[in-house]
Amino acid sequence: MTQHIGIVGCSAEGAALCYRTVCVEGAQLLGAHAHPEVSMHTQSLADYIACIARGDWQSVAELMLASANKLAAIGADFLISPDNTIHQALALIERESPLPWLHIADAVAADAAKRGFRCLGLLGTRWLVDSEVYPDKLAARGLSCLRPSIAERDEIHRIIMDELVCSVFDPESVAYHRQVIQRMKDQGCDAVVLGCTEIPLIIDDANSPLPTLDSTRLLARAALQRALADPSR
Predict the structure, then answer these.
(1) Rounded distance, CA 208 to CA 220, Å?
(2) Model confidence at 232, in pLDDT bands (50, 70, 90)?
(3) Can you tell me whether residue 72 is helix, strand or coil?
(4) pLDDT at 125 over 60
(5) H/E element holding 119?
(6) Which fold has domain 104-214?
(7) Quick one: CATH architecture of 5-103+218-228?
(8) Distance of CA 131 to the CA centre of its chain
(9) Could you tell me the residue ranges of all domains in the chain?
(10) Model confidence over 180-194: pLDDT tens digits?
(11) CA gap 93, 68 in Å, rounded
């Protein structure tokens, strides 16, 4: 028996990549075509963006909690959210959540430590990069974090919100991400966190100047391991 994974979605591309990873890599662990039971609930992305844009993280938390309650009602055993930005609101609902959550930055930090990285560049929305979601989780494992410059944050944010979440993949935007990652490498980073669940759609180990920490797939893999674990432990 495997546990039932509940996915609290936010943006379509990130949620879809996480779901596909659970299903495809689940088959590698369980056999052809097999994967744990998985359910997803997504509020309108516009509702999330409206709350985030005005800094209303309590309302973001309430949207997440509403999804959590619906997933609990249909039998999910635990929850993940393939959206880095909204993890800023997770602490506001963890106590009242009907189910436990896996934290995306925990999955990334664990993999970074396992692979022996020490200084990580961080890419993501301006909301995420300005926050302490990743610096806190990385520091807990003795890892340091380098954020993009203000101008770089703004441009990466524009690419994510105007292009990637809308399924637009522009070669110039790929080149821009590579340029930022190269600068981070020059400043001493030994890996880069793809801290937006859409960035892995345009950046990976094949085209990045630094090894990548793909937050979307790492979260999906952590969920698979949790789903396969003995729930009595």
Answers:
(1) 21
(2) low
(3) helix
(4) yes
(5) strand 119-123
(6) Rossmann fold (3.40.50)
(7) 3-Layer(aba) Sandwich (3.40)
(8) 14
(9) 5-103+218-228, 104-214
(10) 999 999 999 999 999
(11) 10
